[in-house]
């Protein structure tokens, strides 16, 4: 069997198939990430999980990630997307904790940005080095920038960039008003730029999640070895049932422990919602996402027309029960899965330009775009007042995601990238190389 697989690898790499004949050979893939994929509550987890589940059907996935003892579901369900999982013990301080505050203070003097430094781990670095020395892999994937400090040599690795992290930090700096906060964020943004540039240049290749991200990385970091994969969605899963109980007029979906979402919701409630309420006083809003900080949870206590769900087992009913999905983001990078999920759920979307960045959508046909508080409120009111426009926008958006952005299509594109990287690596077996 080992001889047969080796021969199959050799034959396919010397005579690679066309794009329509992907899955030419079984690959052994080492996938390194900072977390396990269950419970699945963040966009990056969703993107990785949906692709890995499909790659797992055709290839041998070895998955390395930090183990969160408070979430035993993660390692327990890893067999859904990998042949073998390697949990690494870690103690990553949660935001708002004293240890996190100490990390922020240390960030004044460290060379690496805190957002990455907090995931540096000697045990993970030792494990990755051991696996690369003892095993042979066709591809090694560094999923997000954070695990890069734990990979001994990036030359043989594919860096999977869900975001351009430097862009996020620069946008955080733009939105900051306090002088001390601006001083700190400026230093962190510069360190993020220096680290991200170094890692992108060191990696064998970089995978971006949109054409704009890829172009930005070319411009910012001077990277030429770049591929792109789009964001996908499980169209069948998000299809609405025949009847859905109404839950709110407007819905915001997203992890509420992520700063761009916290900033976006705060901006919406402070500056956009009052404009809507002047014309529709009874307008209700659902904010659905895990771990909302006190400033977001307090919104519901102050206003009975705002629902803050916290962590939910299923986000779909909150989409199905809303008239409009709002994405009022001012900070961020990569692509927002929440928009394609709303489209698959047949809920029309109003977004800022930043919110819809990198998605292959046509404003006015697939969603509405507004970049000031007044315009955003106007676009929401247009949809709330006109059921036929809601249906028109929702139908066009559904056709888009159903025809072009299923996870199977996205996974096939990523698979072809890994195959091409393995072919161009020569023997295609990464061990001592990486």
Secondary-structure topology with pairs:
Elements: H1 2-14, E1 28-32, H2 43-56, E2 60-67, H3 73-76, E3 84-89, H4 98-106, H5 114-117, H6 122-134, E4 139-143, E5 157-161, H7 165-175, H8 179-202, E6 205-208, H9 211-221, E7 226-228, H10 235-238, E8 248-253, H11 259-279, E9 285-288, H12 294-302, E10 306-310, H13 316-320, E11 322-327, H14 337-344, E12 349-351, E13 368-369, H15 373-385, H16 387-404, H17 407-424
End-to-end separation: 26 Å
Topology as H/E string?
HEHEHEHHHEEHHEHEHEHEHEHEHEEHHH
Determine the mean pLDDT.
Answer: 89
Any idea what the CATH superfamily of the largest domain is called? Answer: Glycogen Phosphorylase B
Indicate the overall shape.
globular
Class computed from helices, strands and strand pairing:
alpha/beta
Radius of gyration: 22 Å
The name of the CATH topology of the largest domain is Rossmann fold
Q: Which oligomeric state applies?
A: single chain
**Tally of individual domains:** 2
Largest sheet: 7 strands, parallel
| Strand numbers in spatial order across the main sheet | 3-2-1-4-5-6-7
Unreliable stretches: 1-23
Number of strands: 13
Report helical residue fraction: 40-55%
What CATH architecture of the largest domain do you see? 3-Layer(aba) Sandwich
User: Which CATH class of the largest domain applies here?
Assistant: Alpha Beta
């Amino acid at each position: 069997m080992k001889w047969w697989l080796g021969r199959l690898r050799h034959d396919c790499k010397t005579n690679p198939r066309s794009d329509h004949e992907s899955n030419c050979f079984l690959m052994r893939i080492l996938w390194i990430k900072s977390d396990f994929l269950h419970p699945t509550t963040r966009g990056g987890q969703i993107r990785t999980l949906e692709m890995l589940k499909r790659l797992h059907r055709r290839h041998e996935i070895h998955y390395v990630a930090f183990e969160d003892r408070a979430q035993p579901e993660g390692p327990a369900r890893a067999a859904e997307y990998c042949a073998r999982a390697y949990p690494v013990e870690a103690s990553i301080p949660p935001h708002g904790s004293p240890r996190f505050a100490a990390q922020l203070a240390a960030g004044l003097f460290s060379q690496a940005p805190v957002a990455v430094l907090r995931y540096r781990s000697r045990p993970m670095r030792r494990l990755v080095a051991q696996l690369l020395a003892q095993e042979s892999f066709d591809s090694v994937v560094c999923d997000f920038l954070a695990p890069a400090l734990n990979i001994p040599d990036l030359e043989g690795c594919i860096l999977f960039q869900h975001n351009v992290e430097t862009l996020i930090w620069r946008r955080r700096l733009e939105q900051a008003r306090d002088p001390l906060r601006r001083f700190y964020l400026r230093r962190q943004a510069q360190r993020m730029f220096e680290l991200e540039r170094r890692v992108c240049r060191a990696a064998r290749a970089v995978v971006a999640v949109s054409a704009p991200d890829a172009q930005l990385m070319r411009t910012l970091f001077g990277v030429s070895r770049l591929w792109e994969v789009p964001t996908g969605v499980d169209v069948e899963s998000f299809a609405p049932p025949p009847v859905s109980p109404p839950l709110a007029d407007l819905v915001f979906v997203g992890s509420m422990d992520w700063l761009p979402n916290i900033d976006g919701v705060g901006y919406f409630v402070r500056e956009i919602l009052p404009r809507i309420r002047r014309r529709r006083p009874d307008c209700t809003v659902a904010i659905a996402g895990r771990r909302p900080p006190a400033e977001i949870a307090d919104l519901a206590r102050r206003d009975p027309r705002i629902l803050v769900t916290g962590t939910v087992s299923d986000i779909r009913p909150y989409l199905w029960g809303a008239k409009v999905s709002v994405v009022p983001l001012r900070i961020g990078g990569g692509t927002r899965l929440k928009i394609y999920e709303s489209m698959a759920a047949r809920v029309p979307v109003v977004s800022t330009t930043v919110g819809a960045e990198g998605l292959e959508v046509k404003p006015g046909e697939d969603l509405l775009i507004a970049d000031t508080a007044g315009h955003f409120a106007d676009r929401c009111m247009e949809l709330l007042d006109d059921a036929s426009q809601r249906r028109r926008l929702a139908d066009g958006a559904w056709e888009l995601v159903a025809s072009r952005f299923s996870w199977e299509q996205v996974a096939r594109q990523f698979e072809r990238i890994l195959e091409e990287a393995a072919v161009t690596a020569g023997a295609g077996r990464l061990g001592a190389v990486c």
